[in-house]
Structure formats: C-alpha cells, structure tokens
Amino acid sequence: MESDFDRITFYDISMRPPTEVHCCSPNPWKTRYALNFKDVSYSTSWVPLPSISKVRRGLDLPATRKFADGSDFYTLPIISDPSTNSIVGDSFDIAVYLQQTYPNSGAGNLLPPQKLDYTFSQNQALAVPLSNRTAAGFEEYAQFNINVDAAFTTHVLLMVQNLPFDPATAEQSKTESLRRAGLTNWADLDIHGAAREQLLNSFQDALAELAKLYEKDPSGPFVLGTQPSYADCIVGGWLRMSSVCLPASEWEQLRGWHDGVFGRLHDTLQEEFGQMN
C-alpha cells in the first residue's frame, strides 16, 4: 500500500481561502496539469507568497531566475519525488523530469515531437524575469514556453488588481509584488479607461498567432487536435490565471477571442487535468 512518504510533494502558491478555488499562479498550474496528465501520485504543499524564498532555501534549491539588478527571484513550483530522491524547481524542468522518469504513465507522452511555431516579441522590458530553460530534445517546448510567458506577462497588468491574496498575508504579498515590479504604490498597478481598453486590444492581437497554432488541427481543442501535450499545459497555466484574475466580463471576452479556441482549451484542461491533490 502506498504511503504519504511515497508521494511526490508539489509546492504551490497559496491564495485566498478556499485555496482550491483561488489558486491561479500560472507556472504551478503548468505543473499541476503535467502531474495530472502523467497520473502520478502527489500531494500539494501550499506555500504563502512571502514564504517562497524560505521554502526554496530550506530545500537547498537556488533561484532559477534573477532580476535585472542581479538579485535572486525565488518562485514556485517545486516537486520533491522520494522515489528518486529528486527535487526539481522549475515548471519546464519538472515537465521534462516527469516525462523522462515516468515515460509510460498517464495520458502518454507529455512532450511529443511537434512544431510550435509561435513567436512573441515584446517591445518593453518585463519586471518579472522569465524562465529561460533548455533541454536537449525539447527545444521547441522551451522556446514556446518563453514566448507564451512573454505574451501573457506583457499583459498581466490587466490581472494584478484582482489577485486573490490571502488576507492573512495580503500586505506582505502586495509589498513583495511591488518590489518585484520596481514600484512603491499598489495603486500604480491599476489600469482603467482608455489605457485598459488599449491593453486588452493588444492582448487579443498578441494571442492571434497563438490561436492559429490551435486552428491547424480542427479536431481540437489541443495543438495536436485530440492529443494533449505540455504545450497545452503552458498555455493553460496562463488561462487559469486569466480565469481567476480578469474581471468576469473580460474573461468572457478572452474565452471568445479567435473563434473561442482558448475557452475550449481552458474548459477541457480543467475537466481532464485540473483535479486538486
């Protein structure tokens, strides 16, 4: 019989209770989808945002990213797998680890060969650094991850005011978010009126080429039609954040953009791979 000591521990970011409803961090969601895709046994350890750096250091994991000033950017997800005595601390690295360690588990190949020809060129520096990982044999996925992250991060200002912070740590979390963005006032992250409408239009345009990737195989809703892959987890992680943090009317707009490809992808991922463990 399996014990709790045999399970993978998945470290995710806790948000406002009930956490299962409000958890919305995109990179942990990429990992949650991947864990459920591979159907491996795991349990979630919920980490308050202000405690992330302490948890990573406690697991002897260095930061995988740095801010422009060279300081460490500590983030989640992390998995700890007792079956191999492995601790992995980046969402892309975790996907590669799961496929290589559990190649025949769950729904099959998490990283099947495919052409992921989507590029997003941001014209502004991003306050939060992106994960820039590589893995032999999975370069298409690594570059796709970077480009999708850049497209959504460029427009994440639309979502930050609705981040569902846990009231117990809300002020600390806001302070940390401001520090990461290089700002001092939470109100500076509020965007409304014409500026918001302009950013929404930019967001829709940024996702147009990504939508074309999903329209190549009309059997959908995944890039490979009826076959899910980690590419869908990458996009799905950001769609989960959008579903929680965008105002309801704007989330409905996003769901309908580009013939509804993103609404269908989100719904299917949540139904098939969105369970909480």
Structural class: alpha+beta
Please write the CATH class name.
Alpha Beta
- Uncertain stretches: none
Q: How much strand content do the residues show?
A: 5-15%
| Record field, number of beta strands | 6
Radius of gyration, in angstroms, nearest whole number: 18 Å
Q: Fraction of residues in helices?
A: 40-55%
Q: Could you give me the name of the CATH homologous superfamily?
A: Glutaredoxin
Q: What is the global morphology? A: globular
Q: Quick check: average pLDDT?
A: 92
CATH domain topology: Glutaredoxin
Number of helices: 10
Element-by-element helix/strand order:
EHHEHEEEEHHHHHHH
What multimeric state do the chains show?
single chain
In whole angstroms, how far apart are the ends?
A: 18 Å
- Structurally, the number of domains stands at 1
Largest sheet: 4 strands, mixed
InterPro entries: Glutathione-S-Trfase_C_sf, Glutathione_S-Trfase_N, GST_UstS-like_C, Thioredoxin-like_sf
Domain Glutathione S-transferase UstS-like C-terminal: 189-270
Pfam family, one: GST_C_7
Domain GST N-terminal: 25-99
How would you characterize the overall build of this protein?
The structure is a single chain. The chain is an alpha+beta fold and 277 residues long. The protein has one domain (4-273): Glutaredoxin. 46% of the residues lie in helices and 8% in strands. It has 10 helices and 6 strands; from the N terminus they run E-H-H-E-H-E-E-E-E-H-H-H-H-H-H-H. It has helices spanning 19-22, 26-38, 52-58, 91-101, 139-154, 170-181, 193-206, 208-215, 230-245, 248-273, and strands spanning 8-13, 42-47, 65-66, 72-73, 78-81, 86-88. It has a 4-stranded mixed β-sheet with strand order 2-1-5-6. Strand 3 and strand 4 form a beta hairpin. Helix 9 (230-245) crosses helix 10. It is globular. Residues 189-270 form the Glutathione S-transferase UstS-like C-terminal domain. Residues 25-99 form the GST N-terminal domain. InterPro entries: Glutathione-S-Trfase_C_sf (IPR036282), Glutathione_S-Trfase_N (IPR004045), GST_UstS-like_C (IPR054416), Thioredoxin-like_sf (IPR036249). It holds the Pfam family GST_C_7.
